[in-house]
Amino acid sequence: MGVGWAWAVAAVLSAAPGSVQVVSPLVKVRPDATPKGAKEARLSAARGECEGTQLVLPQGVTRVTMQPLALKGPGAPLTVDTWREVYVDVKTPSNGEGRTGPWPDALVPLSAPGNPRHPTVVYAEVCVPAKQAPGTYTGSLTASVDGKELPAVPFTVEVRPFDLPATSSLPNSFGISLYSIAKGHGIPADSPEARALLRAYGKALLEHRVSAHGMGMDPPPVKFQDGRAVLDWTAYDAEMAPFLDGSVLPSGARFTTADVRDNRKASTDAEKTAYYRAFQKHFEDKGWKAQLFFYAKDEPKPADVPLVKAQAKRVHDAGGNIPVLVTTALNPAFQGSVDILTPIINCFYPREGPQTCHFVADAATARSKLPSRAKVWWYQSCMAHGCTGGPPPDKALDKAYSDWASYMVDHPAPLNRAMGVLAFGSGVDGELYFDTVFAYNTKKDPWADLFEFGGNGDGTLFYPGTPAKLGGTEHQPVVSLRLKHIRDGLEDYEYLRLLTSLGDGAFAKTAAKRLAKSGYEISRDPAEWEAVRQEVTERIVKRQSAEQAKRSGRRTSGGTP
Length: 561
Description:
Strand content: 15-25%
Number of strands: 28
Shape: globular
CATH topology of the domain at 21-165: Immunoglobulin-like
Low-confidence stretches: 2-16
Distance between the termini: 30 Å
Helix content: 25-40%
Protein name: DUF4091 domain-containing protein
Pfam families: GH123_cat
Strand order of the largest sheet: 14-13-22-21-20-19-18-17
CATH class of the domain at 21-165: Mainly Beta
Number of helices: 14
CATH architecture of the domain at 21-165: Sandwich
């Protein structure tokens, strides 16, 4: 479930000059805080899982280097990957629980120059292959700062004897755009370099268990012949097939979802329906398992009801296998038109004080009022942190916008991570997020200012890794700490789901509630997250071992396995 325990098992240290401290990834190390950590890194991971921790190095450092480390154990060596954390200067807090000043977020190569005015923090990560032999893997991580070697950090990973699926069990769809990426990197959108960069961004999302909508944005060219839509899939398949057939990553991970790209050349109702039918058939012919969906009007107003109904009718007339997604609270006006109802997270949890959603219903209640095949997803928006930025003068209003699960830079890491646990506890069917590179398409420099929609980082989970910023000659996506936390939350979901499949669903529900009683009652304590993680891990191992013994007994006695 995504948290290393190094900070909890070794003797706590003070911030002694020249020391290296291992700190939980659920702690955001800020300049005004003196973190206390451990002498060694000890992680626990399932097969198919990535685990991270933080190394806090002496301050005032410009260059950090680390010797390559391969952890040795009963199977093939495990590689430790490292990045340096870069700080974003928050000028306007996301709300009353945010703070101004530097916050860690971007993860850059160690070769990139650092800012000596900020803390020196390295994010270290181990990703365990699916077929890795379980057991203990050990080594020592050696770092140098500005040419001075630091004491080695003992590094241990306990690989657990169970697997997480390569593809997320929770469908999700986060937005990304080739055109925003090209603008953020200052390269032509129609260049081969931009296309290769889009693939790198999509790959980075998939490595964090996230699927994308938008991508290249351009729809397949279409011609209409005898009432049929004939599409040229050449460019679309070149872009999307690796993410849909599982070939882009060695793990075989695939996007869980894909959006229908509307085409303006389909102008009449009949042409649009034929176009959607051809889209659906192409996915069927390819055998792609991703849920194809039509993203209808976003946050429709009452005046948009006829538009949504017309969109839904055209899609449904194509055969009914493409669900229509609408970001709205439960609303009788859309009855029969919405197949994936997607309210903001505020709409799932009643709360005292000013109301940020006018129709609150949990997932089960919402689902009961929809057709049997309909799904209930959710999403975050500025309604979870306030759309104006900074603490509002009204304290009751500030409270209403505080404490929610949040992807904002200046909010605690447990809030960044909580959506996976909440998804399991609430029973929602999926998650939507509007964008991951929104700031690229503005006039701002994302490295200096991520403030959009009243929040720091709303709609932006990457940074443009240009040669001017990182050095070298190639462009690359720079992932954020928040994307790591989102991945860890999706891994939390997998742990709880696995435990439930092994017959211990009651404990899984209780464990989820210990971490997140509701969307705004989330534990901020890394020790609590760690304790729950260890208990869930132990119960999975015990349950799985008992199940394997039972199957072995049946085979020994001559029964059917």
